Predict the structure.
Amino acid sequence: MNATTRALADQARAASRDAVNVLHAVARSSGATVHAAPVGPITAAILGRFAALAFAGDLTLCEHLSFTAPRPAFWTAWSPKTIRCAHCCEAEAARIRGTVEDRTCDRCHRVADVVHAVAGQLPAVVVGARAGRAPYAVPPVQVQFGLCSPCRAADQPPAALPESRPTTTRRTA
Ligand SMILES: [Zn+2]
Ligand SMILES: [Zn+2]
């Protein structure tokens, strides 16, 4: 590993730690909990959408992120073609807040009275220098999506979850 790759790997590790701290801070501020869980079938399917976009080259970074300076990044299933910095992710969340989109399950696409926010953390990945190409880092990505109650129960049996509250609890008129 050359010095440039090593420096990038150090940055990537620090960014991954920051990202986990961000996940905990977001959870605290919304009254949710962070816990280790096996990846359920619906989470796996949504991660598969993320991977498919990545493999197809259909994912872009917002203008504040780069492959040479990793920092916490966010991917939302409802707006999936961009990986965003915290600021841009907040702007995207604000865009849908209070709209039907905010109450739409990212799995079954039904509009629900209660949508549970689910997030998971993927660590940064560094690809080393080779054949004249500079090393680069995919930032740590917080994957975020919302599930209606039946989809959430299908993904994680309720007995496996600590007590948690839905983050969106709007009623249709
Ligand atoms: Zn941004
Ligand atoms: Zn659903």
Remarks:
- Residues 168-173 have pLDDT under 50 and may be disordered.
